[in-house]
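Private note to self, pasted from the team thread so I don't lose it. C-alpha cells:
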C-alpha cells in the first residue's frame, strides 16, 4: 500500500505541473489562438530564474515565487509585442513555427551558459520534512506543490470564466473591433493575457526547482506530455486542462505501480483513444 500511495503521490505532483502548464497553454490558445510551443522553454526559464536569483543575488524561494514569474511574464510581453502580434491574422502554423524557433534559441542560450548537467535547488526550510500518515510518508513540500497548484488553477479559471475581466478577454478574441468601440484597449489586453499565460509557466518552474534538477532540457522533456494533456482536455478549454492534467497525473502514477513500462506512453494512448471518439477533446466544443 505504501508503494501504491507513493506512486499516486508522484503522479499527483506531476499532474499538478501538467495542470499549471496546460492551463497557461489553454489560456494562450483559447484567447489568442496561438499554439505556444515555447511554453516548456519558459517553464525552464522560470526555474533558472529562481536558481540564479538564489545563487547570485541571494533571493530566497519565497521571493522567487513572485519575482521569477514576473520576469518570465515580462519576457512574454516582449515576445508578444515584437513578434507574435504580427501573426494573429495568419494560420496557427506560423505561431507554432515561431515559438518552436524561440524554444531552440532559449534552450541553446542556457545550454551554452550552464551546460547539460542539472543544478540542485534546496527545499525552503519551512517546508522541509514530512508526515508519516501510516499508509504513506507525505513530504511537506510536495503537499505544498499540490495545494498551491490547484489553488492557482482554480483562481485562474474563476477569473477567466466568472468575472467581467474574463468576459472582456473572451470578447476580445471573438470581436475585437466591437470591444475596442467600447473603450477597451484590446492590443494591451492581449499582450497582458500572453504575459499571464507564460508567467504561469514561470511559476510552475519555480515550484518544480526543488523537486527536479534545474537544467536546460527540463522543459523539452515535459512539453510534449503537456500538449497531449491540452489535446485530451480540449484545445482552449481552461477547466478541461485543469481536470485532465491532474487526472492524467494520477493515471500515470497508477500505471507506474501496475505496469511501469507503460507509464511513459499511457498519456499518448489515452490521447489517441480520445481523438478517435471525441476529436475536440473531453471538454472541447464540437464544431
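Design output:
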Amino acid at each position: 500500500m505504501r508503494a501504491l500511495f507513493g506512486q499516486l503521490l508522484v503522479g499527483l505532483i506531476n499532474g499538478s505541473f501538467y495542470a499549471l502548464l496546460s492551463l497557461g497553454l489553454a489560456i494562450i490558445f483559447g484567447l489568442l489562438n496561438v499554439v505556444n510551443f515555447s511554453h516548456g522553454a519558459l517553464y525552464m526559464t522560470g526555474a533558472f530564474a529562481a536558481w540564479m536569483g538564489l545563487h547570485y543575488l541571494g533571493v530566497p524561494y519565497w521571493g522567487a515565487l513572485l519575482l521569477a514569474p514576473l520576469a518570465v511574464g515580462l519576457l512574454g510581453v516582449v515576445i508578444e509585442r515584437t513578434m507574435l502580434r504580427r501573426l494573429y491574422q495568419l494560420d496557427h502554423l506560423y505561431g507554432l513555427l515561431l515559438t518552436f524557433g524561440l524554444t531552440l534559441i532559449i534552450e541553446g542560450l542556457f545550454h551554452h551558459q550552464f551546460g547539460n548537467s542539472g543544478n540542485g535547488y534546496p527545499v525552503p526550510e519551512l517546508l522541509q520534512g514530512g508526515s508519516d500518515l501510516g499508509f504513506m510518508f507525505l513530504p511537506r513540500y510536495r503537499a505544498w506543490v499540490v495545494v498551491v497548484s490547484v489553488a492557482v488553477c482554480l483562481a485562474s479559471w474563476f477569473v477567466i470564466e466568472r468575472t467581467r475581466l474574463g468576459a472582456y478577454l473572451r470578447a476580445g478574441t471573438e470581436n475585437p473591433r466591437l470591444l475596442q468601440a467600447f473603450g477597451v484597449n484590446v492590443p494591451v489586453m492581449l499582450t497582458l493575457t500572453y504575459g499571464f499565460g507564460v508567467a504561469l509557466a514561470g511559476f510552475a518552474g519555480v515550484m518544480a526547482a526543488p523537486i527536479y534538477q534545474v537544467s536546460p532540457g527540463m522543459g523539452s522533456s515535459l512539453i510534449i506530455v503537456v500538449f497531449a494533456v491540452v489535446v485530451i482536455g480540449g484545445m482552449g478549454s481552461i477547466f478541461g486542462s485543469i481536470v485532465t492534467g491532474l487526472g492524467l497525473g494520477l493515471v500515470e502514477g497508477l500505471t507506474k505501480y501496475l505496469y511501469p513500462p507503460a507509464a511513459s506512453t499511457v498519456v499518448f494512448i489515452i490521447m489517441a483513444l480520445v481523438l478517435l471518439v471525441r476529436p475536440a477533446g473531453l471538454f472541447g466544443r464540437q464544431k
